Amino acid sequence: LLLDDEIIDLLKQLSHNEFNFGIQSTNMQALKIMGKRFDRKKFEDIYKRIISEIEKPGLTIDLIYGLPGDDIEGYKESLNYVLRFDEVTRILTNPLIILPGSAFYREMEKYKIKLKDKKSFMIAENFSFSKEHMDRAKRYSFYVNVIYFNRLLKSCIKDYAGKKKKKSIEMIIEFFQSLPFDITGGLGYPYTIPSVEEDFNHRNSVLRNL
């Protein structure tokens, strides 16, 4: 988080502002393995300053699932955390992509990493994140992506979760799983941030059916 007072003051002078926060994960073990630190207080202080001082900023947050050291419950906690920030316009979610030459690529055996294929280089599973849970993370990511298409729906689900004293992500999952139809139209849950052409086509086909 390198947005200090000077940089924020300079950004305020721009006519259009879009900010992307690459949080990736709130899971401490996953962050440690990545060699990354997430300072929640600093992030929240910067977030509050941006929404209070910059007119209509565009705000997005990145999350990654399939990180070594994370698991499905940890990923749900990351989703639940970022859902707190009402001014964010979209949560960008994607599975970990391990490119040749990267640290994770060199340490695939150490972390028991298996790739989906050698075209997308998306992770299929690792020692802490099973294939089954990767599929669930993709599905939950799609649920979250869909509610950001409708701010009223997102607000209603979050308000209802508060009244029921449930986590927002749990209420979102419960809502979509209670629907009497398949929201993908039988096409299967897509990657919300695809990396190869066929995945882009799959996602777009699903979204057209919503």
Tell me the total number of β-strands.
5
For the biggest β-sheet, the strand order reads 1-2-3
Q: SSE order in H/E notation?
A: HEHHEHEHEEHHHH
Mean pLDDT: 92
Principal-axis shape: globular
Structural class computed from helices and strand pairing = alpha/beta
* Range of strand content: 5-15%
Count of helix runs: 9
Instruction: Quote the distance from N terminus to C terminus.
Output: 36 Å
Q: Main β-sheet, in a few words?
A: 3 strands, parallel
Radius of gyration: 18 Å
Task: Describe the model.
With about 210 residues, the protein is an alpha/beta fold. About 45% of the residues lie in helices and about 10% in strands. It has nine helices and five strands. The strands form two sheets. It has a three-stranded parallel β-sheet. Strands 4-5 form a two-stranded antiparallel ribbon. Helix 6 (about 130-145) packs across helix 8 and helix 7 (about 150-165) crosses helix 8 (about 170-180). The longest helix has 17 residues, at about 130-145. The protein starts with a helix and ends with a helix. The mean pLDDT is about 90.
Topology of helices and strands:
Elements: H1 5-11, E1 18-24, H2 28-34, H3 40-53, E2 58-65, H4 72-82, E3 90-95, H5 103-106, E4 114-115, E5 123-125, H6 131-147, H7 151-163, H8 168-178, H9 197-209
Helix pairs in contact: 4-6, 6-8, 7-8
